[in-house]
């Protein structure tokens, strides 16, 4: 039991550190003006157009770091700072989200697999913690509820790991495009790569944390208590 708490604590501390670094990096690179003067919206629209994608809209959404691509309605949603921004950070984020749009348009297998899991997980997540909690209370009576809960949590863990190649690939597509099309100069490219690197690490830490939690639940199910 103590070992599980130590692992959970370490994952939490690393997660806080990565989130802090990500925030600092984006604050720093948001202050660096893009040499070509393009806004995030203009970069996104250009990348979509040059990728042969004409049915995806670029929209502005509220919040910070709320940027995402929605495959359901084919929209690249950019936070106001990115949508209107003309910074290195805006270029990195806008091109990354368009990387997801390119994945969708080219039937990237990991994105397809991830999208197929969303309907099931959106329902499972509403009940998963309650099932696991009931399973822990009833572990000495029956293992069925906990087994169901562990199976549901395993699906969410799988989802978090499938997300990794999706995010890394989107960043790679973004960086390749902004470099090839000279959206950024050499110095700005290095900054963009650094920003996206820290963004990707948040997904990596989340996946590791999910796996650690899953192993803890499995240990309870198997009756191995520290």
From TrEMBL:
<feature type="transmembrane region" description="Helical">
    <location>
        <begin position="6"/>
        <end position="22"/>
    </location>
</feature>
<protein>
    <recommendedName>
        <fullName>Zinc metallopeptidase</fullName>
    </recommendedName>
</protein>
<dbReference type="InterPro" id="IPR007395">
    <property type="entry name" value="Zn_peptidase_2"/>
</dbReference>
<keyword id="KW-0812">Transmembrane</keyword>
<feature type="transmembrane region" description="Helical">
    <location>
        <begin position="130"/>
        <end position="162"/>
    </location>
</feature>
<keyword id="KW-0472">Membrane</keyword>
<dbReference type="Pfam" id="PF04298">
    <property type="entry name" value="Zn_peptidase_2"/>
</dbReference>
<feature type="transmembrane region" description="Helical">
    <location>
        <begin position="198"/>
        <end position="218"/>
    </location>
</feature>
<keyword id="KW-1133">Transmembrane helix</keyword>
